[in-house]
Amino acid sequence: MTWFEALFVLVAGMGAGTINAVVGSGTLLTFPTLLAVGIPPVLANVSNNIGLSPGTAAGAIGYRRELEGQRGRLLRLIPASLLGGIVGAVLLLKLPGSAFKAVVPGLILLGCVLVALQPWLSKRISLPTHTHRGAWWVIPAVFLTGIYGGYFGAAQGVLLMAILGIGMDANLQRMNGLKNVLATVVNGIAAILFIIVADVDWLAAALIAVGSTIGGFVGARYGRKLPPTGLRVLIVVIGIVAIVTMVF
Q: Would you say residue 128 has pLDDT above 60?
């Protein structure tokens, strides 16, 4: 990797960390960047996941105030994300790279639609689902999102925001803080497995790790100031960009 390519990867990591803290889909910056500098797809995916993990954690730390009073939710949802991340990481190592390609754009589109319609849908969900614990389907949905996040992870945050925003009774910024913790768990456990059993491009991973950590704190600082409508619009826009990028 030349110094220019290294700088390119570092800047992509910063952008990805910022986007992940606010919404998600940072992988759509870093993964194509790694491919562009000549890293093979599976190796790029593994190295990218490891590199983005510190940035996701930085975003979660930046949203710590929004996490106050959500200990119970974290204790219920973290195991689902943890198990999902393990399954997804194993699938990445075992399945051909094209296995999920057809369904990923559809999942992102579904997430965008759910986020956009979240206020309307929330009003029409029966009251028993809108307790502090959330709807019954939130935990299995978080588990399935964890599988996707461990496998690839692009727009994992969009899907999580849709699930949490509709299935739990809390404002969007508090859900964003929760989303950052769950994404950290998924990326973290997948990264551990990849470090143990997979080949890693450590230079690429290190550059993305530095960039995404800086970006994570920047994204948390400014993203938490967005009003709910602005955050919702940003989620949908980034999700649509993600779909267009992956399809074309």
A: no
Residue 98 has pLDDT above 80, yes or no: no
**What local confidence, expressed as pLDDT, does residue 237 receive?**
75
According to the 3-state scheme, what is the secondary structure of 6-65? Answer: HHHHHHHHHHHHHHHHHCCCCHHHHHHHHHHCCCCHHHHHHHHHHHHHHHHHHHHHHCHH
Q: Which residue has the higher pLDDT, 193 or 134?
A: 193
Find out whether 213 and 58 touch, Cβ atoms under 8 Å.
yes
The encoded tokens of residue 135 equal 């709807």
How many angstroms separate the CA atoms of 210 and 58, rounded?
11
Structure letter (DSSP) for residue 161: H
Let me know how long the chain is: 248
- CA–CA dist 64, 210 (Å, integer): 21
Q: What is the pTM of this model?
A: 0.83
CB atoms within 10 A of CB 69: 10
CA-nearest of 13, 87, 11 to 44 is 13
The pLDDT of residue 42: 83
What is the maximum span of the chain, computed from C-alpha positions, in angstroms? Answer: 57
Distance CA 179, CA 67 (A): 10
Is-contact 48 247, C-beta < 8 A? no
Let me know if 67 is exposed, middle or buried by CB neighbors in 10 A (0-12, 13-18, 19+).
Answer: middle
Q: Please state, in angstroms and rounded to a whole number, the distance separating the CA atoms of residues 41 and 51.
A: 15
Give dist(CA 78, CA 181) in Å, integer: 8
Task: Give whole-number Cα distances, 54 to 15, 132, 156, 175, 239, in Å.
Answer: 14, 29, 16, 20, 22
Digit-coded pLDDT (tens) for 195-248: 999 899 999 999 999 999 999 999 888 877 777 677 667 767 766 776 776 676
